[in-house]
Amino acid sequence: MTKDLSSRSSESGDSALGDSLESLPPVIFTPSHLAHINARLNSCTPQQILEWAIITIPNLYQTTAFGLTGLATIDMLSKLPITQENPVPLIFIDTLHHFQETLDLVDRVRAKYPNVPLHVYTPENTPTADAFTALHGPKLWERDEPLYDYLVKVEPARRAYADLNVRAVLTGRRRSQGADRSSLPIIELDETGLIKINPLASASFADVKAYIDDNGVPYNALLDQGYKSVGDWHSTVVPKEGESERAGRWAGKEKTECGLHADYFKMKAEAKRKLLEAQAAKAAAEGVQA
């Protein structure tokens, strides 16, 4: 990773990127063009990648669950001259099952970066954990984890992208996190045409933590208890000594991703099928009782 860990002061700005860009045509990269861009950006600093993305792609947002990499990205963006009047907006998917420490961190990030717009999305028609349980039953993550992932993460994210006319997102994924992320490019396109930009793809956990500490960036208090990657409270544990940083996510399972970076159309179709089956079963049961 080529490092640029400078700490420049920033000025306040009120408007968000993309406010007047809805009429622009979509950004299209051919495979050869994308390969060329990735080859060039691979030797750039995260700050240079961020500047390129802001200049090149309209309606750019950052999706974040406020992990270390996302927090470093927020801070880097806040110090770029190009973002002072037009900060890159944030999208946070509140699964309704985050640790309280994560929700507390959201408040601290709001306080430190007050000019950065933050859009919070929750699962459809269920603004609280109790409402989610009432609609889908208890512990859906144990009974049908793929459906749970779709309902609390994928669907809200795609609704956010549609509502906000998102063309591209900055993510916090890194190659050092291993598994499917080990060969992560800087720029990628998903099956829907969404552009995903991974500005710290080449950074290590140590690189990111050093940036956080050196720049006084707020971070999740759970990290001081040994956590490294923090997701929902019911599926996150402290990784064992020598394990990878994401080993604490879905411990004991082969799963390595939450669904946000899986095949959207496949997940949507499967979730729709399961929900229709559940509705039919509920209707049949109510008919018998009547």
What's the SSE blueprint?
Elements: H1 31-41, H2 46-56, E1 60-63, H3 68-78, E2 90-93, H4 100-112, E3 118-121, H5 129-136, H6 140-143, H7 145-164, E4 168-170, E5 187-189, E6 195-197, H8 205-214, H9 264-289
Parallel strand pairs: 1-2, 1-4, 2-3, 4-6
Antiparallel strand pairs: 5-6
Low-confidence stretches: 1-21
Measured as a percent range, the helix fraction is 25-40%
Shape: globular
Major sheet strand order = 3-2-1-4-6-5
Distance between the termini: 65 Å
What is the element string, with H for helices and E for strands? HHEHEHEHHHEEEHH
Secondary structure tally: strands: 6
Largest sheet properties: 6 strands, mixed
Q: Which structural category fits the helices and strands?
A: alpha/beta
What is the rounded Rg? Answer: 20 Å
Mean pLDDT: 86
Portion in strands: 5-15%
Total of DSSP H or I helical runs spanning 4+ residues: 9
What attributes characterize this protein structure?
single chain, 290 residues, alpha/beta, 6-stranded mixed beta sheet, 9 helices, 6 strands, 7% strand, disordered N terminus
Would you give an account of this structure?
The protein has nine helices and six strands. Mean pLDDT is 86; it is low at 1-21. Helix content is 39%, strand content 7%. It has helices spanning 31-41, 46-56, 68-78, 100-112, 129-136, 140-143, 145-164, 205-214, 264-289, and strands at residues 60-63, 90-93, 118-121, 168-170, 187-189, 195-197. By secondary structure, the chain is α/β, with parallel strands linked by helices. The chain has a six-stranded mixed sheet with strand order 3-2-1-4-6-5. It starts with 30 loop residues before the first helix and ends with a helix. 34% of the residues are buried. It is globular.
